Every structure is written in structure tokens, then in C-alpha cells.
Amino acid sequence: MNHKRAILLLSCPDNKGLVARISNFISEGGGNIISLNEHVDTLEKTFFFRVVWDMEKFKISEKELENEFRPLAEELDATWQIHFTGQKLRIAVFVSRYDHCLQELLWRQRLDDYPAEIPLIISNHPDARSMAEYHRIPFYVFPIDPENKAAQEEKEIRLLRENNIDTIVLARYMQVLSSTFIDNYPGRIINIHHSFLPAFMGGNPYKQAYERGVKIIGATSHYVTEDLDEGPIIEQDIVRISHRDTTEDLIRKGRDLERIVLARAVYFHAQHRILLNGRKTIVFD
Amino acid sequence: MNHKRAILLLSCPDNKGLVARISNFISEGGGNIISLNEHVDTLEKTFFFRVVWDMEKFKISEKELENEFRPLAEELDATWQIHFTGQKLRIAVFVSRYDHCLQELLWRQRLDDYPAEIPLIISNHPDARSMAEYHRIPFYVFPIDPENKAAQEEKEIRLLRENNIDTIVLARYMQVLSSTFIDNYPGRIINIHHSFLPAFMGGNPYKQAYERGVKIIGATSHYVTEDLDEGPIIEQDIVRISHRDTTEDLIRKGRDLERIVLARAVYFHAQHRILLNGRKTIVFD
Amino acid sequence: MNHKRAILLLSCPDNKGLVARISNFISEGGGNIISLNEHVDTLEKTFFFRVVWDMEKFKISEKELENEFRPLAEELDATWQIHFTGQKLRIAVFVSRYDHCLQELLWRQRLDDYPAEIPLIISNHPDARSMAEYHRIPFYVFPIDPENKAAQEEKEIRLLRENNIDTIVLARYMQVLSSTFIDNYPGRIINIHHSFLPAFMGGNPYKQAYERGVKIIGATSHYVTEDLDEGPIIEQDIVRISHRDTTEDLIRKGRDLERIVLARAVYFHAQHRILLNGRKTIVFD
Amino acid sequence: MNHKRAILLLSCPDNKGLVARISNFISEGGGNIISLNEHVDTLEKTFFFRVVWDMEKFKISEKELENEFRPLAEELDATWQIHFTGQKLRIAVFVSRYDHCLQELLWRQRLDDYPAEIPLIISNHPDARSMAEYHRIPFYVFPIDPENKAAQEEKEIRLLRENNIDTIVLARYMQVLSSTFIDNYPGRIINIHHSFLPAFMGGNPYKQAYERGVKIIGATSHYVTEDLDEGPIIEQDIVRISHRDTTEDLIRKGRDLERIVLARAVYFHAQHRILLNGRKTIVFD
What we know:
Four copies of one chain form a homotetramer.
Chain A: E1 5-13, H1 18-28, E2 33-41, E3 46-54, H2 62-75, E4 79-84, E5 89-95, H3 100-110, E6 116-123, H4 129-134, E7 139-141, H5 149-162, E8 167-170, H6 179-184, E9 189-193, H7 205-212, E10 216-223, E11 233-240, H8 247-270, E12 274-277, E13 280-283
Parallel strand pairs in A: 5-6, 5-8, 6-7, 8-9
Antiparallel strand pairs in A: 1-3, 1-4, 2-3, 9-10, 10-11, 12-13
């Protein structure tokens, strides 16, 4: 009933006949398209595409698919990736002291909410260890200070590689990653910022929001780039507040937002529904 | 810069190669696809499709397009329609005493918010005449009572035909249309109901909502079918209320919802973004 | 810094001077009002009131307060209750197989999100036992069938009494409680229904919503009365859906709503912010 | 049935017995409290209060009320104002070329949505004249350039004074008012900014939002102070967008937000529901 499916994510310069050529490739192989999304950025003249098809009676095997598709992709001058359903995305979660986002991700993994698994958790504090243990997930502590940062990050990267980690989720991880680290996982580090970006960048956004007297607070999940809080936004949501809310109330209300917004971003990412368009995202939801 | 574009809306039994075949048709004619949406109802095994392409260098003329596409459509056993940008949808607005929805539609027409024009307004009351006159739109009054209803509706239909009306929008029109009337405009009569359907069907939904003590009220725009308030839903939205709100407050807050929800439904309809799927809609927004 | 506070919840026939008389009672005792909310139902001519004051320098002791206030309350013909901060509400959670709402409540208890504790969990299935054990909360299984229902409920009530349970939260508990049971906890049983009531009452609301083709789904938390899904609504919220969402997607999206809506209702209840007004609630948020 | 009511807005240093003293003042005069709101800023130790009572059998006349209340107010070291229902707030609307906010305000005035009247409209362009004329409201054009600005503002202020204007609403008025002008109407100039402040301050917020790739856009209504876009926020709201939306779509969607958010702010202001707390507002909604 749920056969294996292929997911193609592709972007290339816009041109005539792109949909026809790619869908012919699938059709000629005997594939049945399950879902298809297309977007053209008319200013940048770029074409974005996601298509999912049934592999059951498809003539090209999973193994050969990339090779078979490559000639067409090169002709289109495309950036592309192919995934298959059934492959779980391997996610490492980084956490510090606040564990509500970590808990949310663990809970959704248990419910099979999205095709991802969490083979390990990394923290700069020991606080979340018991939660990790309850879920039987290896938990590594790398305390960070200005002196040891480069060395610790190196160890972290080695550990991530050994575990074939694909994507890193910063679940309220309070350390800034170095450019070197980030360069190892371009477009594959997801952060949650507890404000409606670009409002209240930097530290203590709830305090900033309280002092500015806004009537709505938000949370933003984005890919991490070298510019802190400036990476491509994946998902945002908001909640209404009032003069009755103290900074503590904002923290409490914001916690629910952070959890949901981060979980949605991970959901889209794990289902390969996101394409990068410069500093923006295309999310085929 | 803004060349004429063709819009194809199509649904048919799901099958392999549908996207390829239709996009080949466009590609072979030299058309550049601007936007494409696809949906498969896997339970009903039905394929829904909307595609927009540039007519500028397209080899088939606007006039011949339907004839050229028909053979493929018949092969696919499809229900389909083709529209062209630049053609304004001709809408007749029906109104009674509350004129906020009418005003919203007139205001948006003036702003060119959607490709539609309002060549005439029909009412069972004279109240909205001055608003119609300010906008220089012919205004017709057809008072309705149980005795004259059939005869009045006949006159209305004649008037609508003479004016080549495509779509009817019931902007808080307080009369129930007969099945005969509705049969003349299948899938082309849009209503706004001032509740979050299916909650509070029938009369006085704000009073019903007040008495039930709900914490949120809504508005629903839907296509009209013979079953009152049961037609396919196009758009809904809500607003939060509290114990402080009286029935009058609900009416006031709901007014803003009704306007926006109806206007969005008309926007989707006028842009040919809606396909019917039984008693449900596919809205490619 | 955080002294003990008194919370008075009161409703009575509306009359002149009510605020003055009650605030004089507090003021004369030397109490400083921290927060005050008032509502008049002008149709029912009923006055609703919540006031919180600092007990630190208040001349009347916690113990004597009810006795000292009673004469005034009787004069006003009032229904009233007095609570003190620091007293944790004792909640029994009833659960069946879906444990996301239970998990949410346990998580919030751990974070001290609201002044409540969960001394026991009751279920008609053993499924949630390991979650209860992880949180070190006694877990009781009472399987229910038509024959044993009355006897099992009796046992449950005995257990609740032995544990001084104040409030029962039905966290997706799939059994209907008998009137006898409900009469034991009037206005103190909170349920979560997975639809935007009064739409989609009864079973399988997500399936109903899918089939009706609504564009928004909701969740509703309400007090339980003898009429199933008809009790006073405490809190509701919604999430937008589209034709792309299957029934499974509605269940997944709805889960997040249910958790948040139930948790908010429990928050208001545990903080003594809710007054009943017939089949409606006054929530002083 | 709808007798005249008094509305007292007051703020003062927090202290014991404040509610009792003020409600005694009303109670001793024989006034029946219709609605009462209270807020304490515990950080600033400031008390905020709004109370509405029936003047029907109140012993102090409308004329004498301020004098009678003054001694108590002075004792409390309070900032305060008293209004009466039935007095319409006199609002001057300033507009430039975009007239959707102006239209919304005129429409709501016609519906008696709030107790305000618009005796005159001022613009730096002639564009909105016909709309003003249709509503029979005097329309004044004051073209502004760097040289004539001071002189033109002087003339505007004279005109506003002659017309006993209480409040100025900037309905997408594209000129920056001078400090001199603003000082004449402290806390009585309401602006609408077409972003979710503090995000995207300054010019072209929709273009900024498009380029940043946010998933939600907003609008903010605030009191005008010397710091552009930094005044106390009255109301905000948002709408979800996606990668499919062009800058033009943001403008179109944002228009609906701007209208609604500004109208809500004017509603709260005209009903005397707003108190200033430094650079923040208390809105008793």
C-alpha cells in the first residue's frame, strides 16, 4: 500500500519545457506522480521543483536513479537531490538548559510524526541527560569556553561524522557555532529563535519584547548561516499578548510557540519540502 | 511584460503520465509554464490540475486552443475549462440590507484587486441604491414574497443572461434561492455565511454563538447548492471573542470577518483557482 | 517577595456598590489588591468578580477568612469560593490510549507552569503505564465494559476521595462518564474535544471535518455535564488546513491543538480564573 | 435604557485601598458600576484604572463631576480624565495617496462602530477629495515641501483648533510630523505602520519583508512620538504569507491588515480604553 517513493528536489534557471522534460523522465520510466510542486521566482528567473513518484513499477532502480537522472540535470544546469521514503533523516539535536524543544522533538519521533531519527544529543551542559536516557539516546556533553571552543567543535564534528548525521537541530542551544562548523553543514543546521525575526535579534528577545510593549510575540525557525539570526527563515508563528503579561508570561507563552514552530520546520526539512532561494526558503507545504 | 496567459483547470481519473502529457502539450506549442498546481485525491483516485502558461510565443491561438486541447481532454476523460488573463469575470452581486460585503467587493474592484467586474447589483430592498449609484453600477430591486418568488427569479435570470453574468455573489442576500435558480449557475454562486460552518447553520448564527458561549466565531464562504449552508466550502476564518462580547459585539467583529472571507473567496474564484471535488473544494492558493 | 495571596471568586445578583463593599472588606483588613476583574451579564443581571490580594499584612488569618467574609457574601446572595496561592490543585488525569494530552500535562507540571499537581492517573487501558512510571505517578487501570461500568466508577470515586482529588481532567479519555459520576464533581471535570464545538460533536470529528471539507479545524476544552459535548466551553483554538491534508494530517495537526487548548484550560482552572454563568464560562485571563 | 455613563481613566502610584476609595466615591454618589478594569505594573509600582458607571441616578452632575473628583485624585497623585458617553470624539484624518485606511474609517463612522466623528480630512495631495466629498466631509490640501513645512503645519494646527479636533489619525499619511506639531497632541496622534514593529521600521516595509523572506507580515498601530515608529503600540495583527507571494501580494494582503488594525486602535481610543505606561500602552479591551 505504501510503496517506496522517490522525491526529487531541484532548482535551475527558468526555461521553457522544464516540467515536461522532468515529468517525461518519470513517465517514460513508468512512474506515477504522487505529488508535484513548482515555483518560479520571476525576478531571479529561477525554477524550483519538487516531485514525488511511486517507485513500485518504476523501471530505474533506486541505486541507478541518480546516474540516470544526471544527464538531464546537467543539461538544465540544476542543483538537485533525490531521496527515498523509508530513509530516515539522521538528526543530531544540540541543547543547553531549556529542554522543552528537545522534549518536543523526542515526543514527535516517538509518534513517528516525521521520517527522522535522533541517534545522538549533544549539549554544553549535563542537564538534559536524564531525558536522553529515558529515551535511550546517547548523550554527549561538550562544555564550551572561549579557549576550548575550536577543539570541542572539532570533536563534535568527528562524532557527527561517525554517526552519519545529516542534519543538526539547535533546540535552544545557547552557543554560537563557528563559521568553520557551519561550513560543514550548509543548509543543514536548523535553529529556533524565540522572537518574530527580524524583530528582537540577539539575546533576551522576550525581555526586549516586554520593554517595547508589543501586542504579539513570535518564534522563528531558520537555517543557520554565519550571520546570527539572519539565515533563511523556514517557519514562524505568533501568539497574542497584553499588558497583563510579565516577562515570565512571555517566556511561558513563547515556549509553546518555540516547540511548535521548530517541530514544523523539522517536519518540512525531514520530508524534503524545502529549497533554498538565496537567503529565502521555498517551503512546499 | 504582462503578456496574455492561458489558465487550464482540469480534473480527471488519476493515471500515470498525466502531468507529462499535459505539459508536453504546452511545451510542444512553445508555451512557458508560469505556474502549476496538482493534487491527487488518493481515496477517490482523482487528479486535479491547474496550469498557467504564457501565450506570447504559443503557436496555438486563443481562439483555437479549446479545439486543439479537446482530443487530449477526451482521452483523459477530463472535466476542464480554459480561461485567459485579461478576461474579466462578470459578477452580479445580490444584496439585502447589510451592505458591508457589497461595499468591500466594490472597493476591491476599484483597486483592481482581482480580475472581475460588477456590471449590476440586484437586491430585494432599495437600501443599497445610493452606494450602487456612487459606483455607477445599475441597481435592480426585485422584492420577493412567497407568491411572486418564481416569477421574480425568472426575471432575474433573464437580466443576468442579458448581461452575460458568469458568477453570482450573495453578499448577505437574505433570500433563499430556488433549486431552479441554482441549477442555472452550478458552482457559480458564492455565498457568505456568518458562522464557522458547520457550526451554527441557519438563522441568527451570532445569537446562537452568544448563547452557546463559544470563544471563537467564524465566517464561511461557500458555493451554493440546494442544501442550505451545505455547499462546498471555499474559505473560512475566525476571530477570538470573550465573555465581554455581547451579541452586538459579535455582529460588529463578525462583519470584518465576513468581508474579508467573502473577498478572498471571490479572489480565488475570479482567478480560476478553485476546482470542485464532490462537496469539497480544491483551492490552489 | 511572593507572599501568600488570597483569591476570591464570586458571583451574585447585580447591584449598586458591590465593588465598593468587597474592596472595602479587603481594604479595611489592610489587604493590597494585586489584581481585580469584574464582569456584569446585563441580560441576566448577574455580577461576576475575581480579586486577588496580598495576605502579608492582612489582619484576618487564612483560617478565619471564610468565616469573616460569609456575612457579606450572604447579604449579597453570592456564590463564592476563596483560595490561597501556594495551595496546589490536586488533579486526577483520566486517559485511554492517546497519551499526547497526558504528556503535555505532565510536562507542564514539571515546569511548574500552573499551581497543580497530579497525584494519580486513571486509565481504562494499561498503555500509558510506562509514562506514568517515568514521572513516578501512581497509575490505576479500570477496564470498563457495559456490565462493570457502575461498579468501576464507584471504585474510581472512592480512590479519588482517598486522594483528596479536586479536579478531574479527561485527557482524551474515551469513556463516557455516568451522570452519577459527574454529579460528584460539578464544574470540576475538564474535557478536551477534538473539534471546534459545536461543529462535529460526537465520534470521529477529524473524519467528519475531512468529509465536510472545512478549511480550518479546532479543538475545544469544556466542563463536562450530562449532555455530551454540550458543557460550558473554557477555551478553543484552531489551525488552518487545506485540500492537501488527509484525515491522518488532521489528526497530526489536531494533536498539537488539543494539547495546547487543554493545557490552557487547566491553567485557567488551576489559577481559579473561571466562573460559571449557566452553560457559559467567564474566563478572567 | 442607554443612560449617559461616566468613564474615568486614571493612573497613579500603587497603594493600598485605591479600588475601595474610588469605588466608594462612585457608590456614595449612587452610581452603578457598569464595567471596571484594573492593572498594576508591579515593576513600576503604578496603578492603572478604568471604570464606567451609570449617571442616571448619580447625585453629582456631569458638570460638577471633575471638581468633585479632583480632591481624591490629588490625594492619590493621579493622572486622570473623565469622559461621558454620548460625547463623540472629534477626529481629523490625515491621508496621502493610499485611501484604503481613510475609507475604512469613514465606513465605520457611517455604521456608528465607535463614538467618533470626522469633521475634516487633511491631505498633502488632492487624490482623496472625491471620497471626502461623497461623505460630505470638508477636505483640505496642504502640500508639503522642506521649505514650507513649518508654515503649513502651523496652518494645519490652526485649522484643527478651530474645529475642536481632539485626536489625529494618520491613515497612511506619508509625511513626518515635526516635534512641534506632535507636542500639540501628546498621546493623541494615532499612526498605522505597515509592518510588525519593531521589524521593518522606516520606508518600504513590504519590500523589506519580501527580501528578508519572512513567513508572516504584520501591521502596527501606535501613538506618534518624536521617534519615528517608536511610539507606544496600541494594536498589531498579522497574516501568513509564502514564497508564492510577490511584493505586490504583500501590499494587497497587508492592506486588509492595515485597515483592520488601525480601525481597532481608533475603536479603543475613542472608547477611552487606553492608558499610557511610559512607551507602552494598557488597552482595556
